[in-house]
Amino acid sequence: MNQGILEGKTALVFGVANKRSLAWSIAQAWSAEGASLILGCQGERLRKNVEELAESLPKPGKVFCCDLAEDAQLESFFSEVARVAPTIDLVLHSVAFSPKDALEHELSEVKRDDFRVTFDISVYSFLAIAGHVKRRMSRGGLLLTLSYYGAEKVTPQYHIMGTAKAALEASVRYLAYELGPQGIRVNALSPGPVNTLAARGISGFTQMLKHHQETAPLRKPVDLAEVGATALFLASEGAGAITGQTIYLDCGYSILGA
Fold it and tell me: Which family, according to the similarity comment (predicted)?
């Protein structure tokens, strides 16, 4: 039996909530190629479901709770990780959140507390994770986060999350510069609209999905398996010179002028 291209590597995955999660498609792709996975779940409410998914992987993964809004939980999580995996090679950050009021209101109407929560969970959590893992990536590796086209161009109904994703993409570039000398690559994957549970929380998402499918050059929606396959490439040696980039996976939608 041939070894997978990620055999012997350890991956941390944040953001798996259910089998329709973008994070889950990437977790499956990495595990299928031999990576050992450790999944961080937000709390006990999600733990059972995430553990069931982790058990179904080719290499059953470990699950530890970690609320990314709490520094103490981050410390505890990485202490648990160090106990079972002294070295980390891959990290996926597939985490974003904004209070419902902020998502439904115009940007100029966003409340200060809602702004703070949105950027704390959607952006700062990636920086916090990077601060912890950089000391454990002794062999170099990859930090990967998920963005969306609304970070670059105005997407109606995306509101504050567009500004948060823009900050996230800027963070990718600065982290790539900082961590490059350690052999750590940092990239963002930007899929087109995918019918996930999280996406359905965006007002007008169904129309957004329909417009994308009718307008994108390939005239089709993005498939979860394609997201996993692209993340696998970025984790491979073939992507060894790619860092600080936002990789569009949107059936060509981002090349359009309108």
Answer: Belongs to the short-chain dehydrogenases/reductases (SDR) family. FabI subfamily.
> Which residue has 């709770």 as its token pair?
65
Residue 165 assigned as binding residue: yes
Is 73 within any annotated ligand binding site? no
Give the residue among 31, 25, 37, 24 at the shortest CA–CA distance from 4: 31
**Catalytic residue, candidates 148, 149, 248, 253:** 148
Element (H, E) at 238: none
- Please report which helix (H) or strand (E) contains residue 111, including its range: none
User: What is the per-residue pLDDT across 53-80, written as a single tens digit (0 to 9) for each?
Assistant: 999 999 999 999 999 999 999 999 999 9
Annotated active-site residue 149? The verdict is no
- Name the catalytic one among 149, 158, 248, 253: 158
Per-residue pLDDT of 142-189, as tens digits, reads 999 999 999 999 888 889 999 999 999 999 999 999 999 999 999 999
Is 195 known as a binding-site position?
Answer: yes
Q: Is 90 exposed, middle or buried (0-12, 13-18, 19+ CB in 10 A)?
A: buried
Summarize the chain as % helix, strand, coil (round to 5).
50, 15, 35
Residue 148 designated active-site: yes
Domains of the chain (ranges; CATH) run 10-253 (3.40.50.720)
